[in-house]
């Protein structure tokens, strides 16, 4: 059952694909400690972002986006946390995976160390499942950085449709630099495709909704806060954001 929960909750390749869309973070000062409360905080931020968008905020969120993208390989280590693995020890709903064991056959530079401890709750039948999964990352490291933290997912699986609210809270250490990131998403997977909204927090614990897109013409993104939605274009030396009605422009 746990393997099914992990797959249907979107914590593997679907969750990783969100990192290609955007990323977010905060200093953790007002972040809840309980995994269930982290997921609730993400949903509240998606429904009503509290932050005021200005040039300083845009730059901060863009920098945090780069930090979280750099942890994508470590985040994706959740795919190793299933009871079918010889490196997993525990029950069908609770267990720990040794990542040094799970990744030992990968090419040098792609291997990971540390452990992920999984706790899963599920109810429902074969066609409909409600599931909550919490994963604790304990000193999970790749060749460049180490992560400690929690990935929590609250999912509803109904036939071929999956709806997931995801919360990720990581302390990232890279050399002497330490960063805390807290981000989350509301992900819907159906026969029509995948849609996602992303929540993020700045260093003042203000929340925003961020979506980004990369095309052959360059990178663009939008940020929604309490003062509206701004569409932004990034360039090599900065960029600009314009309010939805075109009346306000922010340069960064």
Reconstruct the topology from this structure.
Layout: H1 2-8, H2 13-18, H3 35-47, H4 55-70, H5 72-75, E1 88-90, E2 94-98, H6 99-102, E3 113-124, E4 128-141, E5 146-158, E6 161-174, E7 177-190, E8 193-201, E9 207-215, E10 218-225, E11 228-235, E12 238-243, E13 249-251
Antiparallel strand pairs: 1-2, 2-3, 3-4, 4-5, 5-6, 6-7, 7-8, 8-9, 9-10, 10-11, 11-12, 12-13
Can you walk me through this structure?
The chain is an alpha+beta fold and 252 residues long. The chain has one domain (2-251). Helix content is 20%, strand content 47%. The chain has helices spanning 2-8, 13-18, 35-47, 55-70, 72-75, 99-102; strands at 88-90, 94-98, 113-124, 128-141, 146-158, 161-174, 177-190, 193-201, 207-215, 218-225, 228-235, 238-243, 249-251. Strands 1-2-3-4-5-6-7-8-9-10-11-12-13 form a 13-stranded antiparallel sheet, with helices on both faces. Strand 9 and strand 10 form a beta hairpin. Mean pLDDT is 79; it is low at 1-29.
Kindly list the characteristics that best describe this protein.
alpha+beta, 13 strands, disordered N terminus, globular, 13-stranded antiparallel β-sheet, 6 helices, 252 residues
Q: How is the biggest beta sheet arranged?
A: 13 strands, antiparallel
How many β-strands, per DSSP? 13
Helix proportion of residues, in percent?
Answer: 10-25%
Number of helices: 6
Using only C-alpha atoms, the radius of gyration works out to: 18 Å
Query: Which spans of ≥5 residues are poorly predicted at pLDDT below 50?
Result: 1-29
Mean pLDDT: 79
N to C succession of SSEs: HHHHHEEHEEEEEEEEEEE
Amino-to-carboxy terminus distance? 48 Å
Which strand order spans the largest sheet, edge to edge or round the barrel? 1-2-3-4-5-6-7-8-9-10-11-12-13
Give the helix/strand class: alpha+beta
Overall geometry comes to: globular
Overall tally of structural domains: 1
Q: Strand-residue fraction?
A: over 45%
